[in-house]
Specification:
Length: about 450
């Protein structure tokens, strides 16, 4: 009997252990399944997130607006195999006269031609990925392709500000020995003083003269502040020399050297590819006008890591060397009209312009004069930013020409405005250098300069 009990006890013990082991195995299997499921969910979200980010990146590269030479043209965007995955649908707007009567838009399938009698000035293209996923609706303007005379020659620039620009305020040691700052918290850096007590002040010398003549009375300054016309009252103080001063540091003109980009068939020029800003305030100068002079490069300071190089030159400030009148100073360059254009055009090359979507990564050249001769040097377009927020940084270029690298180390100050040429067309102009790598720099699309 005791033996039977012992055997039964052993049987139940053995089966209980097996049951525990079985349950433990099931629990481990459940944990593995849950872990695998969790990993699969994370992987799925990761793939979806990557897809969304990739889609957003593609959309960000597509510009909201483009120009074409012919109505119905379907611009390529990436100039690689990725373009094969993108389909295009034209939504063509009818001419204004018909639009008023009929309204709406006309959808034209890819491959069809727009109605010759209803060629729009602008129309829209919907870009889709795989023909299904909408990427962006792009407004396309029909703009005849232009021809311009390409520059590349050094120019001397003289700009006159529209009023006297305030750089900053400063302290004055008054006649009684006190230190004061009469204009502090009244005028601001970047203000343009147009008049003092109703008397126009177009030069800093005239401003000083008007304040000196105040006789210790308050003066009223007519100021342009970011486009707003305001009046400010300042009380000048007499310094130790007996002269009345307001403690304002000002500037009424500036000058420098750059490169001519192009001259169009009407004698209008564009240069620099970026605007001229005040060296102290960093703000774009408001100008009343300026003059473009011939200039010569007399020495080169090579660029190196962390130190931008420079073309040092001489500007010929005389009537016989005046080559143009500067009319505008904009973010995308300086513009105006040349003097003696027919004669100038005889020494320049006529070249077609490229639309920004026609620019491709790869070999190109820049036209500049660093050794007294205007000639082309090899560069490589590394990156294209069709939808970049900074108009002056539409391209990233790298100098590859051994001769130019030997002369300048790459891109240096004074080369701004040098035309960039590719496939027989002018595609843009050099604007900035990478401070940490003088071989590289930015360029602006010529389309942006022509559309100023």
């Amino acid at each position: 009997m005791q033996r039977l009990v012992t055997q039964c006890s052993a049987f139940f013990h053995e089966n209980n252990v097996r049951l525990i082991i079985y349950r433990s195995g099931v629990q481990k299997m459940n944990v593995r399944q849950k872990y695998r499921g969790f990993v699969c969910v994370l992987l799925g979200f990761g793939i979806i997130g990557l897809g969304v980010c990739s889609l957003a990146a593609v959309r960000a590269q597509i510009p909201s607006q483009m120009q074409v030479a012919d109505a119905g043209e379907l611009p390529e965007l990436f100039h690689n195999a990725f373009d094969r995955l993108i389909t295009k649908e034209i939504s063509a707007r009818e001419p204004a006269a018909l639009d008023e009567k009929q309204g709406g838009t006309t959808l034209v399938e890819v491959g069809e031609s727009l109605n010759e009698n209803a060629v729009p000035e602008t129309y829209k293209i919907m870009y889709r990925l795989f023909g299904k996923i909408p990427l962006k609706m792009v407004t396309v303007s029909v703009v005849p392709r232009k021809q311009v005379y390409v520059g590349g020659t050094p120019i001397g620039i003289y700009l006159k500000t529209d009023g006297v620009m305030v750089v900053e305020t400063g302290e004055i040691q008054s006649a009684d020995g006190n230190v004061c700052c009469p204009a502090e918290n009244i005028v601001k850096s970047g203000d343009y003083i147009k008049a003092v007590n109703g008397v126009e002040t177009d030069t800093k010398e005239r401003l000083v003269e008007c304040i000196s003549a105040c006789g210790g009375e308050d003066v009223v300054l007519a100021v342009d502040r970011a486009g707003e016309q305001i009046s400010l009252k300042v009380h000048p103080v007499q310094d130790e020399s007996g002269t009345y001063k307001a403690g304002i540091w000002v500037r009424s003109d500036t000058q420098g050297i750059g490169t001519l980009t192009y001259v169009d068939r009407n004698g209008k020029f564009g240069a620099l590819g970026h605007g001229i800003s005040d060296i102290d305030t960093g703000k774009l100068l408001d100008i009343s006008g300026g003059i473009l002079y011939n200039a010569d490069v007399i020495s080169i300071i090579k660029g190196s890591q962390g130190v931008p190089g420079e073309l040092a030159g001489v500007i010929h400030y005389s009537e016989g060397y005046r080559i143009g009148e500067i009319e505008e100073n904009r973010k995308d360059g300086i513009y105006g009209e040349t003097v003696g254009f027919p004669a100038m055009s005889e020494t320049m090359k006529l070249c077609e312009t490229a639309y920004k979507q026609e620019v491709v990564q790869g070999p190109a050249t820049i036209l500049c004069s660093v050794d007294g001769t205007c000639k082309e040097y090899e560069v490589d377009i590394r990156e294209i930013r069709l939808n970049g927020s900074d108009v002056n940084k539409g391209m990233v270029i790298e100098v590859t020409d051994p001769e130019l690298l030997e002369l300048t180390g790459g891109i240096v100050q004074g080369m701004s405005g040098s035309p960039i040429l590719q496939n027989g067309r002018i595609v843009g102009a050099v604007t900035h250098v990478f401070v940490q790598d003088a071989k590289k720099g930015y360029g602006i699309f010529v389309e942006s300069m022509l559309g100023h």
